[in-house]
Amino acid sequence: MNSEDFQPNEQLLLRAVELLTSPENFTSTAPLPAKLPEMGIGSMDALSAMFDDVLAKSRDLGAPGFFAHMDPPTPAITWAMHLWTASRNQNLLHPDTAPRARELEKLAVDWIAPWFGMSGGHMTPGSTVANLTAIWAARESGCRVVVSGTGAHLSIRKSAHLLGMEHRIIDDWSNTGDLMDAVAVITAGTTSTGEIEPLDAASEAHWRHIDAAWSGPLRLSERHRHLLDGIESADSIAISAHKWLFQPKESAFILFADHETAHKSISIEGAYLAVPNIGVLGSHGTIAAPLIAMLLAFGREGIASMIDNSMTLADELAALVMAHADLELRSAPNCGVLCWRHKSVSVDDIKRHLPDDVMVSSTTINGEPWLRSVAANPNANPAKVVAGVLQAAEKSRRQ
Amino acid sequence: MNSEDFQPNEQLLLRAVELLTSPENFTSTAPLPAKLPEMGIGSMDALSAMFDDVLAKSRDLGAPGFFAHMDPPTPAITWAMHLWTASRNQNLLHPDTAPRARELEKLAVDWIAPWFGMSGGHMTPGSTVANLTAIWAARESGCRVVVSGTGAHLSIRKSAHLLGMEHRIIDDWSNTGDLMDAVAVITAGTTSTGEIEPLDAASEAHWRHIDAAWSGPLRLSERHRHLLDGIESADSIAISAHKWLFQPKESAFILFADHETAHKSISIEGAYLAVPNIGVLGSHGTIAAPLIAMLLAFGREGIASMIDNSMTLADELAALVMAHADLELRSAPNCGVLCWRHKSVSVDDIKRHLPDDVMVSSTTINGEPWLRSVAANPNANPAKVVAGVLQAAEKSRRQ
Fold it and tell me: Which of B41, B74, B378 minimises the CB distance to A3?
């Protein structure tokens, strides 16, 4: 290894593009060694050695049969940005090491926050950290209790646990009990069913946080933004960019109604820092760049149409399920999340026998297992997914 | 935006490589719009629009005059991996969405943990989260107090604050007081001065965590690994990969002596999860891939030689500072961290007048400001850095 290995190696990068765009021309290599190798094999051979694990044998989240988790495929412009940001390795912790990258993150927040009526915020490696950050700020503002609905994401429980706060789970937002010292966490698009809890609930809570990790981007859609009406009354909002904003992981937003006060309450100073360190992370990368590039490339209108298409795919899947005598729909899709199942073959058996090119996820609601399909993949083919599940049922019955 | 935008776009990716490898052929574009644009300009134009902010006007961490923060330049093989991992967007939260990526992270841990006598662990977006994770596990094992030295990173204070634990700062590891319910956080390579606190200290503590965010990779060097002798007695160790393992952000390890017990104590189950969610993050990307690729390319030996070279650069800088009558050295470099200053021009004035192509960081030790140079850049030129500081002093005096 020498200093040239840190320079742009055109041959290496062109080969990386070739393997990515024409994988069919390449034959896989031997498995990776079990221990850290003593000597290197060089960058070109290392690239080939990674082909299987990173590319060929990865899950194709954009395949027609993938209608499963909240993880989307990503547009190629975001890949180009990851190539670039990795090459520059700016650290947003220091103005010195990220003169423009800090501005880029501020710009990304400026582009997104107004759609939610928030004044600002920052980016985090996911909505778990975004939720933790919000509940931390709420605690600093005086909250002692976290109150959430039964459908809240596990990160709410995790955050309360980390922060040493009591966590009260309620069935009904119209019957919350005293919220004077509570942060009410209202979920817009629950993980299991996509349900949007009442966004105007808990108006008397000390702090109102809306976990819109999944559904937040609907706000950009003219057709669907009304689903999030009222979200602008929150004190803080978590939104994943690596879900319905089609970003590579790890990327999310925590937005605040009053971000200056909130940021001040979750900042720590350090002798080696020119500016305070805000939020959970210390060092922080240029995760805004792929988002800004994608929004530039397609505009609000382009992203919204992609989300609208995804919502339509969930409706189509629901229609196919309803139309089939052997299949059962739990309810109409919520925010592109559909829970369904086969009437006579268990969820586990279906999942076990799915064809390789079809994937659905699963969840448990009130003790009952369901298949779960989330419309994160704009290329999903509902008919293929239904056919795959029926095929799995057939295969399971024959065994 | 349509489904083709999610496919490998060879023309776009080749252009991204061209702009990265031959930036001199490109003229910068107009500033980015202040608001989210309604309509898109397409991926090719978006790429051009990002050139300035992401590439041209970023800080060059690998420039000869950059001898500043703990942020290294990154080898090109890691850029190729970021291109690939962004394209696949695997989510390690689900075995379904990361069949190989989960194995890659396990492999990265298997390659690194044995050098520290640890049984396993996982990757985090930085050592702040790694430290938080360790102190969380320590709390679950019964700790109520965090005890650290005065040089501990601010993330220790932040973690104690987040976790609702008392934080006791001590001057002297030989006089700690009762540690029966304490997690002792010993810093191997303090942020300000690079000092390694006694790694065998606090042997009676309930939990011993070593924050080796900066210095950890020295363990891979035959010449320098003795500096970390005793580290294998820790209960947990934090190591940044995006510092001295030359990884793009955000990348670090939390390693545990008994990772199975530790992971169990910091895991949360969820109805939609096939396996428990371990640690602070929820969704999690394939950050192991660039590290494994780099270690494959250069081997332990190659990385160690790069770290050894960096240590030599710090020694060279120290020698130049000592040899110059106008410059003052605080002490010999510790783990490649050097604190120094001009005898008659303030740290602030020096920093203000540095030439554009020279950068040092600064810190405050016992109330005294110092310039700080961290040997994260294997391409740094100590003579150029000293010349830049002397030039800044001259410029400052003339004003």
Answer: B378
Shortest CA distance from A71: residue in chain B: B91
Query: What distance in Å separates residue A355's CA from the closest CA in chain B?
Result: 13
| DSSP labels, A6-44 | GS--HHHHHHHHHHHH-GGG----PPPPSS--SS---HH
Question: What ranges in chain A are assigned the alpha helix state H?
Answer: 10-21, 43-50, 76-88, 101-112, 127-140, 154-163, 259-265, 288-323, 347-353, 382-398
For B150, the 3-state DSSP assignment is coil
Mean pLDDT across A279-294: 98
Do B43 and A77 contact (CB within 8 A), yes or no? yes
What residues contact residue B21 under an 8 Å CB cut-off, 6+ apart?
A: A8, A9, A10, A13
Q: What is the DSSP letter of A113?
A: G
Report the pLDDT averaged over residues A85-89.
98
* Residue contact A163–B158, C-beta within 8 A: no
The secondary structure of B295-331 as a DSSP string is HHHHHHHHHHHHHHHHHHHHHHHHHHHHH-TTEEESS
Q: Per-residue DSSP letters for A261-328?
A: HHHHHTEE--TT-SS-EESS-SS---THHHHHHHHHHHHHHHHHHHHHHHHHHHHHHHHHHHH-TTEE
Q: Which residue has the tokens 């925590």?
A: A254
The shortest C-alpha distance from A202 to chain B (Å) reads: 25
Nearest-neighbour CA in chain B from A324: distance (Å): 25
- E strands of B52-142, at which residues? 120-124
pLDDT over 80 (residue B340): yes
Q: Smallest Cα–Cα separation from B313: which of B348, B338, B283, B330? A: B338
* pLDDT confidence of residue A3: 86
- Dist CA B98 CA A139 (whole Å): 35
Q: Which chain A residues touch B14 with a CB distance below 8 Å?
A: 14, 17
pLDDT band for B25, please (50, 70, 90 cuts): confident
For chain A, list the domains and their CATH numbers.
Answer: 77-296 (3.40.640.10)
